[in-house]
Amino acid sequence: MTGRVKLEGDLTISRIAYGLGRPADVPSDGPDALRARIEAALAEGITTIDQPDQCGNHQSPTALGAVVRAAPALRDKIEIVAKAGLIEAAGTPRRVCHYDLSPAHLTASVEASLRDLGTDRLDLLLLSRRDPLMRPADTGAALDRLVTEGKLRAVGVSNFRPFDTALLQSEMQTRLQVNQIELSLAAMDALENGDLAAIEQTRMIPMGWSPLAGGALLAGAEPDLLAAMREMAGALGCEISALAVAWLLAHPAGIVPVIGTTNVARIAELARAAQITLSRDQWFALYTAARGRELE
């Protein structure tokens, strides 16, 4: 089992989250396939289901909603993470992709997610990206209101830099509890530029999206790193995919990796990461291989 991470109040999330962030993650053969994947995740203690932006891939909330409607008992077994703020390039005339964290858009996104998911509350809402035109006082007040109304149990951000998070937090009564950022052996900027340290300092929970770098870690995009991972995985008796997730889990910040796969068997494979213990030498061996040079 993967364990739990406590947020404020009585809300907890699983140590590993299951993400539906890509169109390919939505099964084309109906809700039964998605339900099988969710139940496979639940069997491993993975109860947190991460959704894409409501105005991004519309299929995922609708598909998950169909599963919950068909099996209502599942709703109380999972935590639903939704996102808002992204507007895709669409319409006539065609618009550019942009961000919108205005009160009107956030409220509409939450209402749409609740409707599509067939639920009366979202366990966690994340603001997808920083909106350069955001008015922090207005956005903060809208989020506070949605929490007060019981539509959101918790609020966080995604891909926010520390100063953006601090600015929004300064205009809110509700504490921002999560920042979901890109984290993997192929994307270590947050470990080195202070972003992860800032998340720790503010007692937020870091969630890491794309822990396998969209499959690039397994495809040999970095041959030396892949060779190091294969050697270590062989010694530990695990798959390299689980090793990559275990490397994130070993960080003291309490990173919650968001895994994404349409293969039911691979859910159990990735969940094994929670049982892998890396020594300091092993952790730094992968870190060094990912950097491509020795530490000074």
Describe the structure in your own words.
With 296 residues, the chain is an alpha/beta fold. 41% of the residues lie in helices and 17% in strands. It has helices at residues 31-43, 59-70, 103-117, 136-148, 162-169, 189-192, 195-201, 216-219, 223-236, 240-249, 264-271, 280-291, and strands spanning 4-6, 12-14, 17-19, 48-53, 79-84, 86-87, 98-99, 124-127, 155-158, 176-182, 205-209, 256-259. An eight-stranded parallel β-barrel has the order 3-4-5-8-9-10-11-12. It has a two-stranded antiparallel sheet with strand order 1-2. A two-stranded antiparallel ribbon has the order 6-7. Helix 2 links the parallel strand 4 and strand 5 (79-84). The chain starts with a strand and ends in a 5-residue tail after the last helix. The mean pLDDT is 91.
Keywords, please?
12 strands; alpha/beta; 8-stranded parallel beta barrel; 41% helix; 296 residues; single chain; 12 helices; two-stranded antiparallel sheet
Quaternary structure: single chain
The whole-number mean of residue pLDDT values reads 91
Low-confidence segments? none
First-last Cα distance: 38 Å
- Specify the structural class: alpha/beta
Widest sheet: strand order?
3-4-5-8-9-10-11-12
Order of helices and strands: EEEHEHEEEHEHEHEHHEHHHEHH
Which bin fits the share of residues in helices? 40-55%
Tally of DSSP β-strands: 12
Q: What's the overall geometry?
A: globular
Percent in strands: 15-25%
Based on CA atoms alone, the radius of gyration comes out at 19 Å
The largest pleated sheet is described as: 8 strands, parallel, barrel
The number of helical runs is 12
